[in-house]
Amino acid sequence: VQLQASGGGLVQAGGSLRLSCAASGTIIRLNDMSWYRQAPGKQRELVAIISRGGDTNYADSVKGRFTISRDNAKNTVYLQLNSLKAEDTAVYYCKAEDLFGGRYWGQGTQVTVSS
Q1: Quick one: 21 exposed, middle or buried, by C-beta within 10 A (0-12, 13-18, 19+)?
Q2: CB neighbour class for 44 (10 Å; exposed up to 12, middle 13-18, buried from 19)
Q3: Could you tell me which residues are beta bridge partners of residue 76?
Q4: Confidence (pLDDT) at 91
Q5: Cα separation of 56 and 66, whole Å?
Q6: Residue 1 has pLDDT above 90, yes or no
Q7: What is the pLDDT of residues 85-98, one digit of tens each?
Q8: How far is CA 37 from CA 6, 25, 53, 99, 112, in A?
Q9: Torsion, Cα of 46, 82, 19, 48 (10° steps)
Q10: Kind of pairing, strands 45-50 and 30-38?
């Protein structure tokens, strides 16, 4: 399974971006899909996670601003980022887990928020 993330870029504080992450390859079934981020000098942290049935959880720092969603038919997960802040600047990674417990990571997409 390969994950391809896209949608990052440079945006002003208060702006919005939409990240996408599409899975390809031999896919039996993807269960949880999630987004992580890693800022310079910091550990990678979980931003949001969504189950196959649509249950979601968010890091406290992004609640009310970010929305995770997925399209199971397209094996794709999305992250809508609104009201962006400078501290949201990071490389954003998508992750997927399959039916057999396999875990797959995307290559990362840079989000830079200018203040």
Answers
A1: buried
A2: middle
A3: 22, 71
A4: 98
A5: 11
A6: yes
A7: 999 999 999 999 99
A8: 14, 24, 23, 24, 12
A9: 20
A10: antiparallel
